[in-house]
Design a protein that fits this description.
This protein is an alpha/beta fold. The protein has two domains: about 230 residues, P-loop containing nucleotide triphosphate hydrolases (Rossmann fold, 3-Layer(aba) Sandwich), CATH 3.40.50.300; about 55 residues, Arc Repressor Mutant, subunit A. The strands form three sheets. The protein has a nine-stranded mixed β-sheet with strand order 5-4-6-7-3-8-9-10-11. β9 and β10 form a beta hairpin. The chain is globular and about 70 Å long. The model has no long low-confidence stretch (mean pLDDT about 90).
Amino acid sequence: MKLPTTRAAQLAPPEPGQQPWLIEGLWSANSCGIVGGEPKIGKTFLALDLAVSVASGAPCLRRFQTPQAGRVLLFAAEDAPHVVRGRLQGIAHAAGIEFESLDIHVITVPALRLDRKDHQQALQATVAFHRPHLTVLDPFVRLHAIDENIAAEVAPLLAYLRSLQRNYRTAIALVHHARKGAAHERGGQALRGSSDLHAWGDSNLYLRRNGQQLQLSIEHRAAPSTDRLLLTLKINPPALALEVLDQSQAPAPTAQPSCLERVEQILAKARQPLTQKQVRDTVRMRTSDVGHALATLTAQGRVIKSADGYQLRPAC
């Protein structure tokens, strides 16, 4: 039996007045995506800023306009309710918004497991009841007991979230950790677990540190991306919120060592020859990059290769 088809010109056009953005330049309308970054870098602050902006219509990060204000559904698995309230209040104060007016509904169950059918059904019923413009789930690691590295286990969870997005027209922001030591990789490639997570997102936001600077990379499936926008966590009690940092206010960037320099620094600290695997495990780079760096340093005469491994050539 053949599959049904429709000529491209007969596909349904966009609805009149339909906005392509939930938050202009930051999050596409009715889209799924990842808020990613290493632990303790500010991912939750960024996700809560999305929530406050959508619930109020105020610009996200005091910069990105929000044309589609509406209800927000939030599950914060790692923070106590009073911590969630305090953070939301601080962001609302920074945005000049009355906290009591925010249409943010916080799911208060102690655990939500997307790999369990009964929990999936409960979340679906909650989304169907509240019809949120945005659903924030923070973080992914607390939402399951699967192996994140196995695509066959990750894919059904992402498919379930995609079905929520399509059936109830809710944008979904999934907070997820990047691997430790992956700061030199592209944001999506640095995410923990299966590459399906990166591929799943329509709009993805990645936080990383470069020296003392906090940088935001914005990635879209169907719109131009923005790389390395500078942010700062601004403290002005009771406000505590991320804000875009004007380039004129930004401190001079700290030069990052090259791949060759990093490998050379590791060998300089070693008291005995190191194998390529030992160098790779210490420097936390891809095997191909480490191999190329060692070959280059050896060819330049700066490193000696022996049966025991690699070591820095002693200074004459």
